[in-house]
Amino acid sequence: MNNIRNFCIIAHIDHGKSTLADRLIEQTQTVSQRQMQNQLLDDMDLERERGITIKSHAIQMDYKFEGQQYVLNLIDTPGHVDFSYEVSRSIAACEGALLVVDASQGIEAQTISNLYLALGHDLEIIPVLNKIDLPGAMPEEVSDQIVDLIGCERSDIIHASAKEGIGIAEILAAVVHRIPAPKGEPDGAFQGLIFDSVFNSYRGIEVIFRVYNGEIRKGDKVKFMATGREYYADEIGVLRLEKEPRDVIKTGDVGYLISGIKTAKEVKVGDTITRMDRLAAEAIKGFEDVKPMVFAGIYPVDTSEFEELREAMEKLQLNDAALIWEPETSAALGFGFRCGFLGMLHMEIVQERLEREFDMTVITTVPSVQFNVTTTKEELLKVSAPSEMPEPNHIESIEEPFIAAQIITKSEYVGAIMKLCMDKRGILKNQVYLTSDRIELQFEMPLSEVVFDFFDRLKTISRGYASLDYQYLGFKEGDMVKLDIMLNGEKVDALSAIVHRDKAYEWGKRLCEKLRELLPRQQFEIAIQAAIGQKIIARETVKALRKDVLAKCYGGDISRKRKLLEKQKKGKKRMRQVGNVEIPQEAFMAVLKLE
Ligand code: GDP
Ligand code: MG
Fold this sequence. Notes:
Subcellular location: Cell membrane
GO molecular function, one term: ribosome binding
Number of helices: 14
Organism: Siphonobacter curvatus
Family: Belongs to the GTP-binding elongation factor family. LepA subfamily.
CATH class of the largest domain: Alpha Beta
Distance between the termini: 56 Å
Main location: membrane
Bound molecules: guanosine-5'-diphosphate, magnesium ion
Low-confidence stretches: none
């Protein structure tokens, strides 16, 4: 146990966490030269395609140092704000963290938020100044920022280049010297905290856990404390590049367990595993509950696939503890699920994973934050779907969620960013100069104005020189209205949105225009209307198609006709028929691209 070190790598997105993990894995010869590839731990297709880490990844390394053999458990973490729940769970399994800062960028918003997460768990912080090979590196200036931020000595900062392999041996030495060995009682009652899990269709669910006290042996009878269920530890082991079975996992270590569990509901991330013959009196304090920020419906395109989608959601949830959902029905779309996400990127990733890993084709509806609505009968409703919003004359008051936002940028962009934030109903709370030309702006803003396209616009107006982080603050009264969309006089509940009254008219007008572009022309005219209550506030028309596409190839060419039909069928993939109008997926997302 004295020779174990558990640590994670945290940083703002793109500052080089995954690349640094590569170098540590190489240096410790954890994988062969042949197996090595860039960002080795980003093993999901989606991660490799997008070049971002979505999941935390644990890997065990052996390291011989100063005549002693050490076991280093490394966890690489994502940097994007939508995946901070992954970071917080990884942090709970560690005693130390490498805080990586890009020497050409300096401290960014998630550098600070991830540092606070780590300090909140009393982790030992090792600051790493990465990318010192870049011509634009500013080691002196960024070192000043780091010293200011964490109050360390300048000499504590390790200068490194993950790309060129500079500073790697020094980092490993610091991991051994500065990060404390895990604590716990090796002979105590067994307690293992589940911090992640994966569904494996052949072997059942694999749970990943960190041992706090005691040890576990292959074949032990175990109990999951939250569910009360008992299993046999059919296989236990450690996470190298592949899973490697072991006979015993001891205090302080990170391991996996397979016991043939097939139903996702039986496993809960944050639960404690104990041993029937060494029962723990109580569970380890798990994780804080996730606080979803955005809600949207997910529906199968093919209504008969509802049960399949439920199974897929359960399995995905095992590997994505931040995803929450419950069944809902929509007049337009039928049976589906109301889901809570940490942000738009999270929502996008969930949809993509459902399609890639579970082969589902789904439609996601207009996302929304959650409002507190007090009715005239003094009931308090939590409303995250426009369809749940009571009629205007039944509403006493509405509160909307607010966040505290921190934006770090260069001084030249401050003006443009201020304007953007004001447009988004933001209130400037504070501004702090980090250095002579870097500034942190603190705003209070309605969450609904931030979660959708705010980040993209921020990046555009600052040419990429702005980073954003935010925390949930609480509710404030807001003058919100429900905006309905009607197609040929029929209300399409899945297209409704809850918007601020000051923006409703503009919103309605733009949304109708956008829908006119997005709805495919059909044999008949489609009237698009936006309404608040009974009042129509905007209208557009999609003209009818003049000719049937099939009419062109009447008679003769049957294969051409079939091809056309097939093409139409394919095009239908992500469409939903509402009344007699076909609505493509893009229409449901149109509200996000109004500006
Ligand atoms: P992460 O988002 O923090 O995991 O960052 P990645 O490890 O995915 O790296 C982001 C980008 O920075 C990639 O293009 C890397 O090749 C690059 N990068 C990482 N470390 C260095 C470094 O030390 N020097 C240079 N020049 N580029 C680096
Ligand atoms: Mg990464």
